[in-house]
Amino acid sequence: MAPQYKLTYFDIRGLAETIRYLFKYGEIEFEDVRIKHENWPPLKDSTPFGVLPILEHNGKVVGQSIAIARYLGRKVKLAGENEWENLEIDAVVDTLNDMKSKLSAIFAEKDEAKKKVLIEAVKKDTFSFYLPRLEAIVKKNKGYFALGRLTWADFYFATVSPAYDLVTGEDILASYPNLKSVREKVNALPAIKKWIEVRPKTDF
Amino acid sequence: MAPQYKLTYFDIRGLAETIRYLFKYGEIEFEDVRIKHENWPPLKDSTPFGVLPILEHNGKVVGQSIAIARYLGRKVKLAGENEWENLEIDAVVDTLNDMKSKLSAIFAEKDEAKKKVLIEAVKKDTFSFYLPRLEAIVKKNKGYFALGRLTWADFYFATVSPAYDLVTGEDILASYPNLKSVREKVNALPAIKKWIEVRPKTDF
Fold first, then answer.
1. By CA distance, what is B130's nearest residue in A?
2. pLDDT, tens digit, for every residue of B157-183?
3. Fold of A5-77+191-198
């Protein structure tokens, strides 16, 4: 039987990797479609808002990577047991997303000198503000981002946090052992470990 | 009995108004705490990430306005009946939020000439891209943003869309009757109509 889910994104980890991790963790088959950049312009207009990833299921199409991750997190039992617990997960994910959005100017900057200035500003204003607070949250939650146990928020962090090192060229989590351990724990889950071994090798 | 929820924000509609609408719609009592800007600096460090709104309930505190709105949307039965339906709601809310995030540079710009340039760019690149697509979604969904019926996505749009006019000084939805009607329908709900009459009068 053909997979019931079709995920379309570029041939990178990027915004789709949380989704791929959740499919793998839940042993849900999916079609992992990877569009080459040169093939994207003619396809763009056929997507709901001209952006990827999109997920197709039962003849329906949706976008928005975090919304898709939440859906799968619930499906594979990495969500809360009541709505307040789900709110705790959602709030920390949106905070991680707020932090990540402050890195986008660095990705966009092509001038190396200007990029260096932006990186220093992000280290000083963004990382040094958010990371100690997030580290304290993980410590309080017994090594996880919410509920004192593994949730899809940890999957989100494990797949998004490599961008911190990528934009700065540094080991940004070096002084945050609890945060680092979240990523290591997720990546050591048998299904994820196996996925990391076999997934397409891409730069980010 | 004291309300079981305490919402803390500034004395504006802003990011908290979706939440207030949902409390009112569901007839859930809440303490509507409004911090004056001059009293904010000493309070800032006591919040999880130095930002408002925050919601307190049963001795716990969470931030993130959209996450809180989702929680309340489910509580007051303005959510989906299964997880795919919830994904459809979440995806359109995140798309509205993507569009809104492109307005923030206008809010921040103090120079009137530069502000005008930014407004024209937003009209050309953002509104003219998103609004026709959103208009088509609402038309397809029988006058709502998702599921062919009233959901918390409509509440989000009703409370967020006045910002489009505020930043541009124009009636941005004038040529989008379906979008305009979503706002009107939400604002005409008896509990919301009453809230609009009695709520504190603020500029935005």
1. A49
2. 999 999 999 989 999 999 999 999 999
3. Glutaredoxin (3.40.30)
